[in-house]
Specification:
With about 425 residues, this protein is of the alpha/beta class. The protein has 17 helices and 11 strands. The protein folds into 2 domains: about 300 residues, Rossmann fold; about 110 residues, Dihydrodipicolinate Reductase, domain 2. It is globular. The structure holds nicotinamide-adenine-dinucleotide (NAD). The site of nicotinamide-adenine-dinucleotide has 36 residues, from α1, β2, α11 and α15.
Length: about 425
């Protein structure tokens, strides 16, 4: 289906659930880029050059994606801090940079958060909605519609960047949208805040991206609702830091037919996300999300002589002095010719939100475009951005970053302007280059 035209001039609302480190870094970054104070490093939508294009064209000149200056932001948070205060507390960006952007950031004040009474147990914020799940959903819907009206928006994308939630066992309320709606009415305890945000967005035809490890878009009721309502959704848990490196390194080990006996990963982080992850239940959700990648890349069932029974351990520790500047250590035990053992040590001193913010920008622009193209339901081709890529069908997700990049490139070719038909061989070239 053709992408609707004239769309680059239209205003797109970025509805941020959670105004913490990641969201405030995103908003500050986009404002700085629009003012010419910063460069969009790490963003595929801003820097990708079309494969095989004689003019080396930038993707943003070829695909009718929304312009950064036409993005408007709304947010919800359990704390009332505006984006400036939140960014200062998160301490990702230098105070001097934030001062330059202060006015614009102070304008972004969060609405009261939807809460479910059991998640984010470590947070003390009182800036929350009251009432049953259904009443909170209705209030959220009114806020979204009023925001759209007040800002004259053409479209919106909802971004879940709230704290990691604990995983709850769902019953029938997760199986169909009718049962889910009955569950909202009955204030069913297994319906989390993230599910309520997602439900309202899908109901309003707004694409949803889940940047967190929390369960919501994969709940069958909501996944089907997105499909039926013609809404594209994507998740989950952005692939940054240690997992990013793991999915770069592991395909290389495999490509060289080296064996693996164990991979030990540990992290320290001191931001609010780390504080929430100090709760063992929330940490379980995140660790599971990080654990899944190696099996899928190495395929021990296909290569038992190299990978059968390898030991994989992931630890996350909350360590306040580091703030958002996460540090990750990996010890990788590999073996080579004649079974001789070797070790790889990786020490990544990264900035989590600096790695994550460009991914959120890309996801917003690409989901908005996908929605205008008529693509609906879970968007498998966006797996490149996630630690635990959601799939629209029962299958094993791809975790190898290069394979994911190939899938993304193929989809980008399909999204290109209809007036510029894509030669078949270019699809092949895009895939072959990886
Ligand atoms: N920062 C990154 O680089 C990164 C990378 C990958 C994944 N993630 C995931 O993204 C999410 C956000 O990360 P962050 O670093 O910004 O964390 P953060 O703790 O700084 O921000 C999360 C915000 O969500 C708010 N919140 C909690 N419950 C809420 C609710 N029910 N409604 C609205 N707001 C709510 C919190 O008050 C907080 O301000 C986390 O789940 C994290 O695991 C972040």
């Amino acid at each position: 289906m053709a992408v609707s035209s004239g769309s680059q001039q239209e205003r797109v609302g970025v509805m941020l659930v959670g105004l913490g480190a990641l969201a405030s870094t995103l908003v500050a970054g986009i404002e700085a880029i629009v003012r010419g104070l910063a460069r969009p490093i790490g963003s595929l939508t801003q820097l990708y050059r079309c494969n095989g294009d004689a003019n080396n064209a930038l993707l943003l000149d070829v695909l009718p994606m929304a312009k950064l200056q036409n993005l408007e932001f709304a947010a919800w948070d359990v704390y009332p801090d505006n984006a400036f205060q939140s960014a200062v507390k998160a301490a990702v960006l230098h105070k001097d940079t934030l001062e330059l952007l202060r006015g614009r950031l102070e304008e972004l004040r969060p609405f009261k958060a939807v809460v479910d009474g059991q998640n984010q147990r470590r947070l003390k914020g009182q800036h929350v909605k009251t009432g049953t799940r259904l009443e909170q959903a209705q209030e959220l819907e009114r806020e979204i519609l009023a925001f759209k009206e007040a800002r004259g928006l053409d479209r919106m994308v909802l971004v879940l960047c709230n704290s990691t939630e604990i995983t709850l066992e769902m019953g029938e309320e997760g199986q169909s949208i009718k049962k889910f709606e009955q569950g909202l009415k009955a204030d069913c305890k297994t319906i989390s805040a993230s599910m309520i945000y997602s439900y309202v967005a899908i109901k309003l035809g707004i694409p949803v991206v889940n940047c967190t490890p929390s369960q919501c878009l994969e709940v069958p009721a909501l996944a089907r609702f997105a499909e039926e309502n013609g809404v594209p959704v994507a998740g989950k848990d952005l692939k940054t830091g240690q997992t990013l490196l793991k999915t770069i390194l592991a395909p290389g080990i495999k490509a060289r037919y080296l064996g693996l006996t164990g991979w030990y990963s540990t992290n320290i982080l001191g931001n609010r996300d780390g504080e929430v992850l100090d709760d063992p239940e929330a940490s379980k959700t995140k660790v599971n999300s990080k654990l899944s990648v190696l099996e899928s890349i190495l395929e021990p069932e296909r290569h038992p002589e190299l990978y059968r029974g390898f030991y994989h351990k992931v630890k996350i520790d909350y360590y306040p002095p580091r703030g958002d500047n996460k540090e990750a250590w990996d010890n990788v035990d590999i073996f080579g010719w004649m079974d001789y053992p070797m070790q790889i040590k990786v020490n990544f001193l990264c900035r989590d939100s600096i790695l994550a913010a460009p991914l959120v920008l890309d996801l917003v622009l690409l989901l908005d475009l996908a929605g205008r193209t008529g693509w609906k339901g879970i968007q498998d081709w966006l797996g490149f951005f996630f630690k635990s890529p959601l799939l629209s069908r029962p299958a094993k997700p791809i975790h190898d970053l290069f394979q994911q990049h190939g899938e993304l490139e193929e989809a980008l070719l399909r999204l290109r302007k209809p007036k510029e038909p894509v030669p078949v061989q270019r699809v092949a070239a895009a895939v072959a280059s990886h």
